[in-house]
Amino acid sequence: PTDQTRDPYYWELEKMWRNLDEEERQQYTKKHCPDPIPSKFSPEYKFGVINEQLNEITQSYLKSREEHMYSGYTEKDKFAEIINAKYLQSMAAPGEPVGLLAAQSIGEPSTQMTLNTFHFAGRGDMNVTLGIPRLREILMTASAKLKTPSMDIPFRSELKNLNKKAERLRQKMNRVTVSDVLEKIDIQSEI
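That's the DNA-directed RNA polymerase sequence above. Prediction below.
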Protein backbone atom coordinates (compact mmCIF):
# COMPACT_ATOMS: atom_id res chain seq x y z
CA PRO A 1 0.00 0.00 0.00
CA THR A 2 1.36 3.35 -1.07
CA ASP A 3 -1.54 5.53 0.11
CA GLN A 4 -0.90 6.32 3.79
CA THR A 5 -4.14 8.30 4.22
CA ARG A 6 -6.35 5.23 4.03
CA ASP A 7 -7.30 3.22 7.06
CA PRO A 8 -5.35 -0.06 7.52
CA TYR A 9 -8.69 -1.90 7.57
CA TYR A 10 -9.27 -0.73 4.01
CA TRP A 11 -6.13 -2.52 2.82
CA GLU A 12 -7.08 -5.64 4.73
CA LEU A 13 -10.53 -5.60 3.14
CA GLU A 14 -9.06 -5.06 -0.32
CA LYS A 15 -6.72 -8.03 0.17
CA MET A 16 -9.66 -10.21 1.23
CA TRP A 17 -11.61 -9.10 -1.87
CA ARG A 18 -8.74 -9.95 -4.21
CA ASN A 19 -8.39 -13.40 -2.63
CA LEU A 20 -12.02 -14.28 -3.39
CA ASP A 21 -12.70 -16.37 -6.46
CA GLU A 22 -15.16 -15.17 -9.13
CA GLU A 23 -18.09 -17.19 -7.78
CA GLU A 24 -17.72 -15.75 -4.28
CA ARG A 25 -17.43 -12.22 -5.67
CA GLN A 26 -20.74 -12.61 -7.53
CA GLN A 27 -22.74 -12.68 -4.31
CA TYR A 28 -21.41 -9.22 -3.39
CA THR A 29 -21.91 -7.57 -6.75
CA LYS A 30 -24.83 -5.24 -7.12
CA LYS A 31 -27.77 -6.80 -8.91
CA HIS A 32 -29.38 -4.82 -11.72
CA CYS A 33 -32.65 -3.24 -10.67
CA PRO A 34 -34.97 -2.32 -13.53
CA ASP A 35 -35.94 1.31 -13.89
CA PRO A 36 -39.35 2.25 -12.52
CA ILE A 37 -42.20 2.40 -15.02
CA PRO A 38 -42.75 6.18 -14.68
CA SER A 39 -39.17 6.71 -15.91
CA LYS A 40 -40.02 4.93 -19.18
CA PHE A 41 -43.58 6.20 -19.71
CA SER A 42 -44.72 9.65 -18.64
CA PRO A 43 -47.86 9.54 -16.46
CA GLU A 44 -49.06 12.75 -18.15
CA TYR A 45 -49.35 10.97 -21.50
CA LYS A 46 -50.09 7.40 -20.43
CA PHE A 47 -53.03 7.28 -18.03
CA GLY A 48 -52.58 4.53 -15.47
CA VAL A 49 -48.80 4.74 -15.19
CA ILE A 50 -48.16 4.88 -11.44
CA ASN A 51 -45.21 3.91 -9.29
CA GLU A 52 -44.84 0.32 -8.10
CA GLN A 53 -45.46 1.09 -4.45
CA LEU A 54 -48.81 2.78 -5.08
CA ASN A 55 -49.81 -0.01 -7.47
CA GLU A 56 -48.96 -2.61 -4.83
CA ILE A 57 -50.96 -0.74 -2.16
CA THR A 58 -53.95 -0.43 -4.50
CA GLN A 59 -53.88 -4.08 -5.54
CA SER A 60 -53.52 -5.36 -1.97
CA TYR A 61 -56.45 -3.17 -0.90
CA LEU A 62 -58.62 -4.49 -3.72
CA LYS A 63 -57.66 -8.09 -2.89
CA SER A 64 -58.55 -7.54 0.76
CA ARG A 65 -62.06 -6.48 -0.24
CA GLU A 66 -64.71 -9.12 -0.70
CA GLU A 67 -64.54 -10.62 -4.18
CA HIS A 68 -68.31 -10.78 -4.69
CA MET A 69 -68.55 -6.99 -4.44
CA TYR A 70 -66.97 -6.57 -7.85
CA SER A 71 -68.17 -7.94 -11.16
CA GLY A 72 -66.94 -6.99 -14.61
CA TYR A 73 -66.26 -3.28 -15.10
CA THR A 74 -67.60 -2.04 -11.78
CA GLU A 75 -66.38 -0.48 -8.58
CA LYS A 76 -62.98 -2.21 -8.74
CA ASP A 77 -62.07 -0.55 -12.03
CA LYS A 78 -63.56 2.78 -10.97
CA PHE A 79 -61.49 2.70 -7.79
CA ALA A 80 -58.29 2.07 -9.76
CA GLU A 81 -59.17 4.91 -12.16
CA ILE A 82 -59.74 7.30 -9.24
CA ILE A 83 -56.37 6.35 -7.72
CA ASN A 84 -54.69 6.91 -11.10
CA ALA A 85 -56.37 10.30 -11.48
CA LYS A 86 -55.39 11.36 -7.94
CA TYR A 87 -51.80 10.26 -8.60
CA LEU A 88 -51.74 12.36 -11.76
CA GLN A 89 -53.20 15.34 -9.87
CA SER A 90 -50.57 15.09 -7.15
CA MET A 91 -47.61 15.28 -9.53
CA ALA A 92 -45.63 18.51 -9.70
CA ALA A 93 -44.70 19.89 -13.08
CA PRO A 94 -40.98 20.18 -13.86
CA GLY A 95 -39.69 23.54 -12.65
CA GLU A 96 -42.55 24.04 -10.22
CA PRO A 97 -41.29 25.57 -6.93
CA VAL A 98 -42.09 22.60 -4.69
CA GLY A 99 -40.03 23.95 -1.77
CA LEU A 100 -42.06 27.13 -1.77
CA LEU A 101 -45.30 25.14 -1.92
CA ALA A 102 -44.18 22.95 0.98
CA ALA A 103 -43.28 25.99 3.09
CA GLN A 104 -46.62 27.56 2.23
CA SER A 105 -48.54 24.42 3.15
CA ILE A 106 -46.90 24.43 6.60
CA GLY A 107 -46.95 28.20 7.13
CA GLU A 108 -50.60 28.88 6.38
CA PRO A 109 -52.08 26.25 8.75
CA SER A 110 -49.65 27.17 11.53
CA THR A 111 -50.66 30.84 11.24
CA GLN A 112 -54.34 29.90 11.34
CA MET A 113 -53.78 27.58 14.30
CA THR A 114 -51.97 30.34 16.17
CA LEU A 115 -54.82 32.77 15.50
CA ASN A 116 -57.37 30.19 16.68
CA THR A 117 -55.40 29.77 19.91
CA PHE A 118 -56.27 33.31 20.94
CA HIS A 119 -60.01 32.55 20.74
CA PHE A 120 -59.60 30.28 23.75
CA ALA A 121 -57.54 32.69 25.86
CA GLY A 122 -58.66 32.75 29.48
CA ARG A 123 -60.75 29.62 29.23
CA GLY A 124 -59.44 27.00 31.59
CA ASP A 125 -61.89 24.33 30.46
CA MET A 126 -60.29 24.18 27.01
CA ASN A 127 -57.45 21.73 27.59
CA VAL A 128 -56.19 21.42 24.03
CA THR A 129 -52.82 21.91 22.42
CA LEU A 130 -53.06 24.44 19.59
CA GLY A 131 -50.91 26.59 17.38
CA ILE A 132 -47.25 25.95 16.77
CA PRO A 133 -46.90 23.45 19.67
CA ARG A 134 -49.65 21.31 18.13
CA LEU A 135 -48.08 21.47 14.68
CA ARG A 136 -44.68 20.58 16.14
CA GLU A 137 -46.27 17.69 18.03
CA ILE A 138 -47.82 16.30 14.86
CA LEU A 139 -45.07 16.91 12.30
CA MET A 140 -41.76 17.08 14.12
CA THR A 141 -42.01 14.52 16.90
CA ALA A 142 -44.70 12.24 15.43
CA SER A 143 -45.31 11.05 18.97
CA ALA A 144 -47.36 7.94 19.61
CA LYS A 145 -48.84 9.67 22.68
CA LEU A 146 -50.26 12.95 21.42
CA LYS A 147 -51.44 15.39 24.08
CA THR A 148 -54.63 16.13 22.16
CA PRO A 149 -55.45 13.18 19.92
CA SER A 150 -58.20 13.73 17.38
CA MET A 151 -59.74 11.78 14.55
CA ASP A 152 -62.13 12.60 11.71
CA ILE A 153 -64.17 9.62 10.57
CA PRO A 154 -66.43 10.02 7.54
CA PHE A 155 -69.67 8.03 7.56
CA ARG A 156 -71.84 7.03 4.65
CA SER A 157 -74.89 9.29 4.71
CA GLU A 158 -77.31 6.53 3.67
CA LEU A 159 -76.86 4.62 6.96
CA LYS A 160 -79.93 4.40 9.18
CA ASN A 161 -79.59 5.81 12.71
CA LEU A 162 -76.34 7.49 11.71
CA ASN A 163 -76.10 9.69 14.81
CA LYS A 164 -76.63 6.75 17.18
CA LYS A 165 -74.05 4.62 15.37
CA ALA A 166 -71.53 7.46 15.28
CA GLU A 167 -72.02 8.12 19.00
CA ARG A 168 -71.66 4.40 19.79
CA LEU A 169 -68.40 4.28 17.80
CA ARG A 170 -67.14 7.40 19.58
CA GLN A 171 -67.85 5.79 22.95
CA LYS A 172 -66.06 2.59 21.93
CA MET A 173 -62.98 4.50 20.80
CA ASN A 174 -62.91 6.88 23.76
CA ARG A 175 -60.60 5.95 26.60
CA VAL A 176 -62.41 5.62 29.92
CA THR A 177 -60.49 5.41 33.16
CA VAL A 178 -61.77 4.47 36.60
CA SER A 179 -61.46 8.08 37.72
CA ASP A 180 -63.84 9.11 34.92
CA VAL A 181 -66.68 6.92 36.22
CA LEU A 182 -65.91 6.80 39.94
CA GLU A 183 -67.65 9.39 42.06
CA LYS A 184 -66.66 8.37 45.57
CA ILE A 185 -64.48 5.79 47.29
CA ASP A 186 -65.11 4.47 50.79
CA ILE A 187 -62.56 2.08 52.20
CA GLN A 188 -63.47 0.09 55.26
CA SER A 189 -61.10 -2.40 56.72
CA GLU A 190 -61.16 -4.40 59.89
CA ILE A 191 -58.47 -6.48 61.46
